[in-house]
Amino acid sequence: MLNPQQNKVIYSGTGRRKTSIARVQIIPGSGKLIINGLPGESYLQFSPNYLRISCTPLNVLGLNKEYDIYVKAEGGGLTGQADAIRLGLARALCNINPENRLMLKSEGLLSRDARIKERKKYGLRKARKAPQYSKR
To answer: From the Swiss-Prot or TrEMBL record, what is one GO molecular function term (predicted)?
Structure first.
């Protein structure tokens, strides 16, 4: 897709994890990460773990400083959002060059983690925790 203001090509991908959804757009640039209008380091609370997780696809391909990443993340917490950004970024990199897919797939970056919170059942305190049994 062509950005009309800057005449640069925009590649996009969507990532999901738990209840988080991240819409990722990448543009050729200097390597900055913007999440919901804030710098990535600030949004992810300067956590090196979240930053490492979010940028894993770029590190695997060796494209650290070649693309600017713009993310619209919503829902869930920072862990889910960081993983959703990772999946969206990997999908966007596959749109750029189909040859990237093989390397990203071998690293497991293109699979969606389907684990979500199990619903609470009636008669129980949580999804599986039962009240204490009383004999009398």
So the answer is: RNA binding
